[in-house]
Amino acid sequence: MGQSIVSGELKQGYTVVNSVRSHQWISDEPAEDGGLDLGAKPTELLLSSLISCKLITIQMYASRKSWNVDGVKVHLNFAGGDDKTIIEKKIEYTSNLTEEQQNRLTQISGRCPVVKMLSNSIEFKLI
Q1: Residue 125: its pLDDT value, please?
Q2: By C-alpha distance, which of 77, 48, 44, 64 is closest to 105?
Q3: Helix 42-65 crosses helix 99-109 at what angle (to 10 degrees)?
Q4: Cβ-contact 38, 17 below 8 angstroms
Q5: Closest CA to 27 of 111, 36, 80
Q6: What pLDDT score does 122 carry?
Q7: Which residue has the higher pLDDT, 23 or 80?
Q8: How many domains does one find in the chain?
Q9: Which whole number is the average pLDDT over 43-60?
Q10: 8 Å CB contact between 68 and 58
């Protein structure tokens, strides 16, 4: 993985302006939780990152096999868990893929870099 420094700046209330390279996006909390609801919650952004990584990994693999994966959708949901976070996953394949191809792509999606990052223990170092 390439090294990128992602930054965030706290604005009004819980609103955070995040940036990396030439991109910016807002994260916030819903109004019912005291936020301004100007963007997705951090947990939603985490799931979004995971979905994006899975779909990009599926596309990379499918391209090498010349499989059409246009319209594939991934749905994730935090399902709780006491000692360990549980994320439910559903993948919808809309193209004419065989069951074997779908199973292989589902397996491959579990090998994306964000899955690997989250599956291993993460150590934070104050710099």
Answers
A1: 62
A2: 64
A3: 130
A4: no
A5: 36
A6: 66
A7: 23
A8: 2
A9: 96
A10: no
Mean pLDDT of the chain: 91
Q: What is the pLDDT, as a whole number, of residue 10?
A: 97
How confident is the model over 61-77, as pLDDT tens digits?
Answer: 999 999 999 999 999 99
Domain range enclosing 84: 42-119
The three-state (H, E, C) secondary structure of the chain, written as one string = CCCCCCEEEECCCCCEEEEECCEEEEECCCHHHCCCCCCECHHHHHHHHHHHHHHHHHHHHHHHHCCCCCCCEEEEEECCCCCCCCEEEEEECCCCCCHHHHHHHHHHHCCCHHHHHHHCCCCCCCC
Q: Is there a domain that residue 124 lies in? A: no
72 and 95 Cβ atoms separated by less than 8 Å? yes
Q: Give the pLDDT confidence of 7-29 residue by residue, as tens digits.
A: 999 999 999 999 999 999 999 99
Q: Are residues 1 and 23 in the same domain?
A: yes
Query: How far is residue 78's CA from residue 118's CA, in Å, rounded to a whole number?
Result: 14
Residues 28 and 79 in one domain: no
